Give the backbone structure.
Amino acid sequence: MNSTPSASSSQSAPFGSWKSPVTAQLVVGESLRLGQPRIGSEGVYWTEGRPQEKGRHAVVRYRADGEVEELTVAPFDAASRVHEYGGGSLAVTSAGVFFVNFKDQQVYTLDPAGQPKAVTQTEGLRFADLLADPAHGRLIGVCEDHRENSHEPANTLVSIDLGTGAITVIASGHDFYASPSMSPDGTRLAWLTWDHPNMPWDGTELWIAEIAADGALGTPHRVAGGVAESLFQPAWSPAGDLYVVSDRSGWWNLYRVQHAGADVDNLAVLEPLQPMDAEFGKPQWIFGMTTYGFAADGRIVCLYEQDGITHLAGLDPSSGAFADIATPYTTLRDLQVSGARAVFVGSSPTAGEAIVELDLPTQNCRVLRYSDRAEVDARYVSIAEPIRFPTEGGLHAHAFFYPPANPDFAGPAGTLPPLIVIAHGGPTSSTHSGFRWPIQFWTSRGFAVVDVDYGGSSGHGRAYRQRLDGQWGITDVNDAINAARYLIGQGRVNKEAIAVRGGSAGGYLVLCGLAFHDFFKAGASYYGVGDLEALIKDTHKFESRYLIRLVGPYPEEQALYRARSPIHFVEQMSSAMILFQGSEDKVVPPNQAESIYQVVRAKGLPVAHVLYEGEGHGFKRADTITHSLEAELYFYGKIFGFEPADKIEPVEIENI
């Protein structure tokens, strides 16, 4: 952040109307969505989503000479669509660099000249989580088969012959597969499975099979897991020991698998390595998530999360020695470890995400790629304040609070700032304290923001995640309201100007908050769920049974689904709302936003509906992100009675 003092003097102006250097264009700017760092023999690789290129994901390499080069030019787009959310689309192996191309979902490799060459050419198949089996000239990975045009695609583990592209199913029979991992000697394969109605953070199973000399897979043995235990990232050490993260203690902790693969009916012994009330795992919304790896000195380098802060640590599995590794980052993900170095995506409260390389012996960090290079005076930056607030049932919930920050302006005497309550998606996801331009967009204009880790969020143990079981639309909404009430009680925000915003499951929270409570004055729903019955009847395989745990079995509990669906209770709404939706959304179909809009419009409430052609679930295009931010600001200006300092294209608001 640039700390050059502002030349302008402070002046009184209504909250929300402050002139800010954090424009919507800066929020998008040259920003990149960094992910999937991989360490290879010829450098460090990663993918970067580019809003300026309609969300295209490029494969990029940081070479040993310090040069950053793009390896996949348009139209190639390294993004998988398995489970619709994808992930695990890049594999850097001893057999080459491979990626899944978004348009056709086929596997490609980069030839020595850097040109992508198709490995598979079977229309209707999607791939993710690829790893190399050099001894047998093949890849192993997850495959999702959409060729039968049935209600649900088939998910399997497959091998892909690198010479012919031939695809062979090597493990099947479960609804979902993930995280294949091969032992260093190439003789054993481990992987995870789970079945409906579980999600991977509810209950998974760890399987192992022997790999014969001809590449055939032996009889798989289940060695850990079940319907009430979530496992994450099986991985083999260089010595051939298998490790896995399990939440059997109530927290995702790291374990070593003992006596694995004996008899199919006898589970292995899992040896806990560092028992603690902390999360060493994450909910597997996407493929390829990693939180630990093995260093040359014998340590396991790992990430763990406590109270919304991510820590990097070293664990000696032989002695049990465990110590944090100091870095300037409070949010870290996608950790990769090789030899004496680690690479991860990291951010701090004052700096956005970056690809970071860490030299383990010296603990020196080097940034290989910033997610953006925009700078602003540090006095315009609001720093996350962790809060723990009381909520229903005598419990507490978690959030990060951001007060307004702009040295040029102050609110009129005797007034308090409006509050935007942010509800993250998932709902089994979480928020974090890392720097994010979209939050600074609001706080630098005079808004206060509270980013809520409502009950059901990850990062606080299994019991906290399970608070939402059967209570979706209740527990999460209560926590969002109670976070605002806590700040009102502290005298930090204006109780008459409370808005709520969120996307997907966060959008559902927005709509429930407006339909079932008379608390929020305005809401902004991004591709939010309005009709639970429509969602369970018309969504993708990965989440097709998710609501059974969050709400109840369907159709047995049809009445409950209707009772929790905001679209049936619009007559109870008394607040303004704006709805943002992508026309190509396969997770929450666009007809849900349209239905809500029509009913609210007919009721006479202030409402706007903005549909973006070609966008899916989660906006990726620069013009969409810019327009939606400005439209939301314009909307709040009309509802809360201030004039934004920005020149904004008006949005059509019905009944205003």
Summary: The first strand starts at residue 11 and ends at 12. The CA atoms of residues 87 and 287 lie 4 Å apart. Residues 2-7 have pLDDT under 50 and may be disordered.
